[in-house]
Write a structure and sequence with these properties.
The protein is about 60% helix and about 0% strand. The protein is an all-alpha fold.
Length: about 80
């Protein structure tokens, strides 16, 4: 007999500064995404890029440099 595994979505609660949420919602809307869809996509991208070997290597090389994570990602992550 086979077994069927059903995955049910999990709900999360996150506190976000209102200006960040407004900007996020604006960008999501520009891309035709609901807030939930955009958050799921952002989570997938975060996982993908966190595992990218080049990002890990550059974070180690840069170490105490004056680059923020955002500046570093501009050089590493594809547009």
């Amino acid at each position: 007999m086979g077994c069927v595994i059903v995955s049910t979505p999990s709900a999360i609660y996150v506190r976000v500064p209102s200006d960040l949420l407004r900007e996020f919602d604006r960008v999501a809307q520009e891309h035709g995404l609901s807030r939930s869809e955009a958050i799921r996509e952002a989570m997938r991208l975060f996982i993908r890029y966190s595992r990218a070997p080049d990002v890990k290597k550059l974070r180690g090389i840069v170490g105490n440099a004056k680059l923020s994570s955002e500046e570093l990602e501009l050089y590493v992550l594809p547009a």
